Structure of Putative transcriptional regulator, LysR family:
Amino acid sequence: MGLSPRVTDLGSFELLATIAATGSIGACARHHGLSQPAVSTRIRNLEQRLGLRLLDRHPRGASVTATGQMVLRWARPALDAAASLDQSLNRLTGPTPAHLTLAASTTIAEFFLPTWFTTLRNRLPGTNISVLCHNSADSVALIRRGGAELGFAEAGHIPAELDHCPVVRDRLAVVVAPDHPWALREEITPTDLAAAPLILREPGSATRSVLHDRLAALPVPLTVVPAMELTSATTIKNAAASGLGPAVLSELTVLDELADRTLVEVPMPALPLERDLHACWRRNHRFSAPARHLLDIARR
């Protein structure tokens, strides 16, 4: 007796497992290099073949139903067996290109990953790489759910359950438009900063967290109430350059603007804003070859 058509498309069960790990159809699509409509269609077709509702779809993402979780438990041995078969076939035919999925903050993704990837490709030609760009908090959450093998985030966001190591030292800079009153000052104080209508990244970003933690750790703790919250460093730079207020950003993101003086850095010696960005991964995780090599490259 042949296999039932309900179970021959193991790839769709794998997509369902990825949605369970990442919490959204979009993240699943990025992980597998597919379009979001393609993933949605394959899951709907799977639901129709099985006669079961596998996903709860809502505006903020998708979650696997209790029935879907049960189906995944039953499907897992078949998926593992298929992976084992693929590995055995590789010994006869040669391996398919390795794939690495990363979760990274915007700063890491824009300023470090391209160079690291060049070195990785020289070591492991043909490696396929997917990068899920998030703020630090969301990158860590993705690692915890198993949605990426390796993550890069600010150290303060990494919980004790994850292993991690420092890879990059960065510095935050206070910047203003050239015609802002602070542009003529030799320095400002933390009190000046806390009282200003700042333009900041969203809660959960490493930049925002470092600023909050350093101000809170002062002998007289300070807090900031931003006048504007934006999720893009480029948008924040443009807003600050337009005179909407001071901004606090990674120094790496404003080097060009400081050089052409569309933005001016304001020294604040009483509050150093250096930070360490870390690589993180699930404890006891067995690294793939690309992940192991990339971690070695990042730590150099």
Q: What stands out?
A: The mean pLDDT is 88. Residues 116 and 206 are 21 Å apart (CA to CA).
